[in-house]
Amino acid sequence: MKQIRIGLVGAGVVGSGLLQLLEKNKHIVQNRNNLDIQLTAVATRTPKRAQPLTSLPITSDVLSVTKRSDVDIVVELIGGTTTAYDVVLSALKNKKSVITANKALLSEKGEELFRIAKENGVELGYEAAVAGSIPIIRTLRDGLASCEFEVICGILNGTTNFILSQMESENWDYSTALKKAQELGFAEADPTFDVEGIDAAHKISLLSSLAFQEKVSFSDLQVEGISKLQSVDISASKNLGYRIKLLGISKRSSAGILTKVHPTLVPLNHPLANVMKESNAVFYKTVEAGTGMITGKGAGGLPTASAVLSDLIYYSSRFGVAGSIPENNIFPKSKKSPEKENEARYYLRFSTLDKPGVLAEIAAILGKNGISIASVQQKESEKEPVNVIVVTHSAKEGNFETSISEIDQMSSIIKEKTVAIRLLENL
Amino acid sequence: MKQIRIGLVGAGVVGSGLLQLLEKNKHIVQNRNNLDIQLTAVATRTPKRAQPLTSLPITSDVLSVTKRSDVDIVVELIGGTTTAYDVVLSALKNKKSVITANKALLSEKGEELFRIAKENGVELGYEAAVAGSIPIIRTLRDGLASCEFEVICGILNGTTNFILSQMESENWDYSTALKKAQELGFAEADPTFDVEGIDAAHKISLLSSLAFQEKVSFSDLQVEGISKLQSVDISASKNLGYRIKLLGISKRSSAGILTKVHPTLVPLNHPLANVMKESNAVFYKTVEAGTGMITGKGAGGLPTASAVLSDLIYYSSRFGVAGSIPENNIFPKSKKSPEKENEARYYLRFSTLDKPGVLAEIAAILGKNGISIASVQQKESEKEPVNVIVVTHSAKEGNFETSISEIDQMSSIIKEKTVAIRLLENL
């Protein structure tokens, strides 16, 4: 039986989960993979959680683990981009493969870290960094290795999907749903990273680079979160046959690659529409295999730890052996497809004054900008603002920008800024 | 760049697809995987389809390919269990890894073939054998390598899923939907293999063995197809909030492993219910990662060929190299969990005579056998038989068998044999 010695850095929710699994699933790893994974070092700044789960001494000197001769693979689970960066860098330079769940680190410093891994002939595995227990990295890299990707898009943040699900099922407004998510531990005290789409943006940039084999920089991403959504948008969308999801979307066209994170109206019969609560999902479209989707638990200690352990098994079994081909993570920079030229359909909610001629003025501006209306909905209302909800046909995003900016300046008819949410493109 | 030389045996729909992809996606394979896959031999008994797709000479001597010194991996795509068996056996004995899409062969002769592969230090890859383009083998083996499986179940046959989808959407009876499937090339002239669940049974036996690491023999499977379903069952299920799917199901309990193929009432809000037409899907439940699902195209030339090529890339890149751990495909025989002890809920359609007391007699027999009724539906009807539709609570399968057999013998009230379809267990 092959023996691999690992050093764990970080013993929070996921790290503790891994400590549990290393013990509980030892027989699975041994029997199924003919592999004996031995934990030889643990470092954490919060030893309390780890202590009951290991008999090893626990050090707070996180860098020491990366230099030990009895460690073959370092598992980095501290998160963040400062200490974690030092740990991963040091491990790679000491010719140790690294397994990490740190999407922020890879999204921001991946280019450098993957290069250093390559220079040192080691691997940097990150299955657990995207979509928790869903094995999307292996799916893109191995399962669909032969496929030419056209689109990859997904529900990549469990917190926002939970909030959106609750807003719909409980008819809550955004802040009530956020508060509930915080109480249940699905959202941080400062939820910005999740609710403003930054976490999803880190993840789609990683998936996109892997699918298209061109580096999609985080800074090239157009990112929009869910914090401005109101319950009226959730319910009006539902009545129109859609469910709002925060999607990370990346698509290739002849103009380049366009990668975005934004709330999206997904048709109720699309598989992404039915991924609820804290679940994650990744949908793909390829030339050869058509469309497909993979869904599962996107967060949580044990689910994410299971992805870390699967990654450990994978690299332990198959890599660092003579004759194998190292994984490629270094891609040429992608050409960004211009956003304004992108064709999209929109849900537009105009908050208008209650007076004659409003709809005519809005329709005139849309028409002037080449935007054709697919449906209009205005319900009788006793108080202002009156919601006029328009679903459009496809037009260039730049034209929407121009129209909305023009309409929002008309204080004679508009009371609050227009809410504009894209519809899912035809996938 | 690593060079791998392959010999292709069989150039039907999938084989021709592979010939196209080897050409069209050569750059993807090279750039993404640093791998040059060279076709060095083609054998087929129907050379006409292959001729325009390769400049190589085409031989009809299929065994010759397995013996050539310029072939590293043999791709077997002829199907069936006779010639294909000879080809795979000969290749393995000549120490060549084999990639196959042949579920029937592996289901029937897998035990022997995997053993011979192991003895010869080569690999036998079969990603394309289950669920077409869906990378379920890689997902079970690598992506979820650390997980303890509780249930694996899926829509594994595109033909039957297409027929069921059409029966619902077009309100067709079974024979009309089958005829349409045959016209569109989704069903064979003799559809037995698909519609009686045999193909799905081959596939679930392979998945089950891999997930539970215990061999589930084809002969241990309880297999029931869709040919007896009537459109009234499709529509009545829908009214009750379910959609009928042909599922392959395998679940582990303390009593052993129970593996079955049968039509199943799936709640409409379950992800499996929304996998329509010729798509396939595999749903899993694990201790660590909870539930998840992977879906995509389950058949077709290019989708299946893409799975063959992904498998080729995988084994070419990572295997047959010093230090790697060979994949394990040899499992101890599973203990079969007794069917009659399994708890299930049922949809029962009794075809009764139109006379008083019928429901009372049926209910009495069910009650006597410990089967409790959850709902009853009987619509006014002008002609016999009158359909009495009962959905039950959970009870032992053996009790259902006893009850139905007793009821069906009561010619005083029953006109046709009772239709009994299981509900999806709580997953």
Automatic annotation (TrEMBL), chains A, B:
<keyword id="KW-0028">Amino-acid biosynthesis</keyword>
<comment type="pathway">
    <text>Amino-acid biosynthesis; L-methionine biosynthesis via de novo pathway; L-homoserine from L-aspartate: step 3/3.</text>
</comment>
<dbReference type="Pfam" id="PF01842">
    <property type="entry name" value="ACT"/>
</dbReference>
<dbReference type="InterPro" id="IPR016204">
    <property type="entry name" value="HDH"/>
</dbReference>
<dbReference type="GO" id="GO:0004412">
    <property type="term" value="F:homoserine dehydrogenase activity"/>
</dbReference>
<dbReference type="InterPro" id="IPR045865">
    <property type="entry name" value="ACT-like_dom_sf"/>
</dbReference>
<dbReference type="InterPro" id="IPR005106">
    <property type="entry name" value="Asp/hSer_DH_NAD-bd"/>
</dbReference>
<keyword id="KW-0486">Methionine biosynthesis</keyword>
<dbReference type="GO" id="GO:0009086">
    <property type="term" value="P:methionine biosynthetic process"/>
</dbReference>
<dbReference type="InterPro" id="IPR036291">
    <property type="entry name" value="NAD(P)-bd_dom_sf"/>
</dbReference>
<feature type="binding site">
    <location>
        <position position="188"/>
    </location>
    <ligand>
        <name>L-homoserine</name>
    </ligand>
</feature>
<dbReference type="InterPro" id="IPR001342">
    <property type="entry name" value="HDH_cat"/>
</dbReference>
<feature type="active site" description="Proton donor">
    <location>
        <position position="203"/>
    </location>
</feature>
<comment type="similarity">
    <text>Belongs to the homoserine dehydrogenase family.</text>
</comment>
<dbReference type="GO" id="GO:0009088">
    <property type="term" value="P:threonine biosynthetic process"/>
</dbReference>
<dbReference type="InterPro" id="IPR002912">
    <property type="entry name" value="ACT_dom"/>
</dbReference>
<keyword id="KW-0521">NADP</keyword>
<keyword id="KW-0791">Threonine biosynthesis</keyword>
<protein>
    <recommendedName>
        <fullName>Homoserine dehydrogenase</fullName>
        <ecNumber>1.1.1.3</ecNumber>
    </recommendedName>
</protein>
<keyword id="KW-0560">Oxidoreductase</keyword>
<dbReference type="Pfam" id="PF03447">
    <property type="entry name" value="NAD_binding_3"/>
</dbReference>
<dbReference type="InterPro" id="IPR019811">
    <property type="entry name" value="HDH_CS"/>
</dbReference>
<feature type="domain" description="ACT">
    <location>
        <begin position="347"/>
        <end position="427"/>
    </location>
</feature>
<dbReference type="Pfam" id="PF00742">
    <property type="entry name" value="Homoserine_dh"/>
</dbReference>
<comment type="pathway">
    <text>Amino-acid biosynthesis; L-threonine biosynthesis; L-threonine from L-aspartate: step 3/5.</text>
</comment>
<feature type="binding site">
    <location>
        <position position="103"/>
    </location>
    <ligand>
        <name>NADPH</name>
    </ligand>
</feature>
<dbReference type="GO" id="GO:0050661">
    <property type="term" value="F:NADP binding"/>
</dbReference>
<feature type="binding site">
    <location>
        <begin position="9"/>
        <end position="16"/>
    </location>
    <ligand>
        <name>NADP(+)</name>
    </ligand>
</feature>
